Amino acid sequence: MLGIFNVLMWYFLLVLYMGQIKGVFGKYEPLTYRTGCTLWGVFFIISGACIIKATKNPTQSMIVSSLGLDILCIITGLIAIVLTVVELSKFKTVSYKNYGQAKLGREVSRVLLIVYHLEVSIALTHAIFMCGSLSQQHDDVSTPATEEAESAL
């Protein structure tokens, strides 16, 4: 759901920044907008779909793929946090024509900064549980083999 929220916010920012008028100081095009940072929510959507499939059919390959996607989501979330903090920390003066759009865009970036923290924490928590699940499956598979070896001796 957070990934869908990110994609919708990207569309909102696209409409917001495309409507700017070139003023004396230029247009306001933040770093996260130019990199398509909020569009990276697609990774969270794909990861969520993989997690649902892994929950319904918990094979080792599905668990490993959902763990890999969780790691990808953690990395993209951390990069998005860094880019957003850099964007919010430096702010060039914009023309009076675009000031309202720039101010609204900065507020959206602040909301997205909170969402990025939520996404990273959820992906990290799920990755930890997936590692535990992989460890548990590995122990379940290896235990009967050691018991058979001990009983043979």
From TrEMBL:
Keyword hit for Endoplasmic reticulum: no
The UniProt entry lists the main location of this chain as membrane
The record's keywords, sorted A to Z, are: Membrane, Transmembrane, Transmembrane helix
Read off the PANTHER family from this record. Answer: MEMBRANE-SPANNING 4-DOMAINS SUBFAMILY A MEMBER 13, MEMBRANE-SPANNING 4-DOMAINS SUBFAMILY A MS4A -RELATED
Matches recorded under InterPro entries:
CD20-like, MS4A
* Family listed: Belongs to the MS4A family.
- Spell out the subcellular localization from the entry: Membrane
GO CC annotations on file: plasma membrane
Lineage per the UniProt record: Eukaryota, Metazoa, Chordata, Craniata, Vertebrata
Q: What single Pfam family name could you report for this chain, choosing any that match?
A: CD20
Domain of life assignment: Eukaryota
The membrane spanning regions, by residue number, are: 7-25, 31-52, 64-88
Q: What is this protein called?
A: Membrane-spanning 4-domains subfamily A member 13 isoform X1
Please name the GO terms of the biological process aspect recorded for this protein, alphabetically. cell surface receptor signaling pathway
| Topology with respect to the bilayer | Multi-pass membrane protein
